[in-house]
Amino acid sequence: MFFSSGKTYGYFIVRRYWHFVLCLNCFLLLVLWFYISNDRPQRVLSSLQATPINVTKVPSINERIEKIFPVHAPVIFALANLTQKTTAYQRLGRLLPLQSDEDRWIDEVIYDQDPKKRYACDNQDLPYPILKRIITQTLPVRDPQTAYEHAFGGLKSPFLLLPFKRSTHLIRGQTICIRAIIPNNVEEKTNDPFHFLYQPYDNVAFFKKEGPWWDTMMVSLNHKDADTSMPVHMKPWPGHEMIRYSFLAEARSDPSWWSSYDFTMIERTAIHIYEGEIEIHDSGTYSLEGLLEYTGGQWNFEKGPVLPYKPTAMQVLPTGTDTFHVKQSLEEHTTDVETATNILNEHLNLPLCKGADHAGRWLSWPGDPQHAIQRVAGLNRHNKFWAPYNCRYRHITYPQFNRCLARKYSLGIEAYGDSNMRRSIKKFLSRGRWCRDWSKRWQMDIPLRSFPANYTTPMYASSPADWKWTMDDMQPVACYCEDYQERSWNRAWFDPMTRRNNVLLENTPEESDALGWDTEWDSGSYDVTTRDGAILRSYKWDGLTALNNPSWESAFTDGNATSTGRPDIAIFSLGNWDATYMRFEDFVHELDKLNTHIHARFIGPGKEDGRQTTIIYRTAQYYCCRVDNTVRRRRLNSDRVRAFDSFARMVFKNLLNAVIWDTFTMGESQTLDVKKESIQCASNHAAADHVEIENQVLMNSLCNS
Fold first, then answer.
1. Which residues contact 562 (CB under 8 A, 6 or more apart)?
2. pLDDT for 44
3. Could you tell me if 175 and 221 are in contact, meaning their C-beta atoms sit under 8 angstroms apart?
4. Residues 224, 336: Cα–Cα separation, whole Å
5. How confident is the model at residue 5, as a pLDDT?
6. Residue-wise pLDDT tens digits, 303-343
């Protein structure tokens, strides 16, 4: 009876061991209180430095640098005037520094044969005062020195560090290393019980190299002449891992998990260094800006409550380098207007793009917007177009895209995504007419309103291709932000309230005749009586979250999924719902299951004609400049979205050989003023004009090859 009855057994446990369970819980709470309420990092470091080991065997700070960074140590010491062996450095072109303050730490040695790599991160050593500070904060050292304690303002405030002086002449094509220095005193000291619970995803090696790490920031290099912005992706400085390995190697007598925990607590309050590289593609005048958003892992809202968004500006050092000029060559002399014109003309002469993830920037169109589609893919409401550095996107009409589908992808498209995918499909179905020129009917300074409760009377046209403006003042709201209840959209065309929608992207006979039958996609034999387009089957999911009802896996297992053949194109959109409602480890688990489903359904032996399904990953929508302050308190910020998206991007690219449809970078590359325009939109949708350009990027990637 005792072993056969679970109920009886549970009752026995409660009666017999309740006092033991209570004592165990009290002990665990006491341990938790002890570690949270005491200054654990300082105690750990102090115990290491006060170790009874013979102090003469503890390395000095300079010995530490020589051991951990043997290749770079001589140059680092030379800049600090810590060596008399100057002959070798002078032969490298070095003169020992005579400047004061931060200028003296600028390394002017060219390690690489390519002068364009002179300012790359691999060729720029970390200045001695910063390296000294981080080592003394994380490793035991003998006789810590006080030299250079006041360099870089005493390392009391966060700043960005450039590898050149104010008077340096830069030329186009050079790679520049930008470093961010975040002192340990930046983290707010607080009695918040969650303070030490916030932490990055240290258990994932991917993020130790790519970030986000302990601190998050928005760093951008802005072209003042062309009014463009280039985001700089800041990654953890590789030296952090080298210091970590040194610590763990010296703590081999302790269990590995304990040593790792100790170092994590030390590392939390030590100085943090990040670096990012950016190649300067365009000549002109630039300004560097940085906003420190979160410190101490507090960006990771799955570890603790959502915290307010209160960014602080970061100083740029050396002083005076926050604005600098890049020349076409050292002999160039052009005006700002000439520079912007040259950038535009050069771009228009590039070959067509064949991918959907080319790095680029938003360039202004100087002439009549009506003439833009003859040369570029399209303009947003600010009269700018997406301009990759090494190729260009053209304007493809939706009838042309339908013809491209009919000839190259006749087995159609399957699309799995959230409401961002819905807005894209609306553009496809309406031939681009949905919300065209919406910004002319609504000003951004008008407060965004929610749909009224009685918003039910339909006001739609006869077909999506005939979508038009009505007297409904809520139409621009749907175009700018939330279109879920759009009254001017007929649910019979495409229903936002159902999981599955099957629609035809097909030309009318009139559109086909107007297009002609000798387009660039009409080579070879074909039957003009066949469909001039293809079918698009879509499945609306809420990411890979548990909020899907039924489960997202039903997209691959229900009767509708198994009854259709393999399409030519399969598009998957992730990241938005996932970063909002999931823990990262759960997302990794669900992503692994999705990978299995995709392989089973789309990958393997080709179709009868040998064609393979093209897998496309549509990145998450960029999220900026705010957190969710509503009662929902969604766990959204830019770096949580980036973390989920970058990991999914890696999986799709490396395991599924997917095409990357990079909508994230297009959003991130907007100027800060334009980014802030999204703050009123709680759903974080891209506005309709931006959706149109996202579609153009996809259509170019599918039809230009």
1. none
2. 40
3. no
4. 9
5. 39
6. 889 999 999 999 999 988 899 999 887 666 666 656 788 89
